[in-house]
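Researcher: Please predict.
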Amino acid sequence: MNKELSLINIAINAAMEAGHEILKIYRDPESDFSIERKADHSPLTIADKASHRIIETLLSKTGIPVLSEEGTSVPYHQRKKWDRFWLVDPLDGTKEFIKRNGEFTVNIALIAECKPVVGIIYVPANATLYTGIVGQGAWKMEAAEQPPSIDLLKIKGIKLPLLKKDKSYRIVGSRSHMSPETKEYISKVRKSHNKIEIVNTGSSLKICLVAEGSADEYPRFGPTMEWDTAAGHAIAVAAGKKIWHTDFSSELSYNKENLLNSYFVVK
């Protein structure tokens, strides 16, 4: 267990150090973010690259392979042999970062046998840290400022899920990606609940809202990649939730040959 905690502490520190570097760029009035376009036309900034470099360097100390959105592509015939690996999104919510609305995160997950077992999500704009260890629990810590080294045992924070205080049924929607299928799904849910409230936010914060109990479910009928969901998935499961395929027959799996997720519902 001490070895596992050491791994998790390294990942937490990697997420927070990367988040602090992202924040420097975010708050720099002279920065134009040096926006590029990837092959799928999604944006890429100097903050994505800087975060990736920090995380890759620090996680390399664990001896566990790293698969990152901004890293070198690893062929399936090679990674399918991995019994576990780090799955990383160095800056989730790049569009929100560019809009300067604060709704972006750093995501690190540990995948074992195609399932996320540890999830770390750091929110640089408000120094909030979510941590989930499947089978042990999930926690949220606000004002998580980083000393020279973070120790999970000392910073776990508030145990998730939180107790919901009102009776409205909250559905999380995407700030940038509300699809027609999502709207149709929400219309069906309305038939079962007297009071529906739609909560809009960006990045993996959508999964975090369900994991912490601030929202009841998050339907996603739009493209996502494994690194978009893995850390949130671990946190959600550790908090007693699941990320289902839309037929609710099984959960998302990881390290597929095609890293594109199918549509899903978090609840």
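Model: The chain has two domains: 2-160, 169-266.
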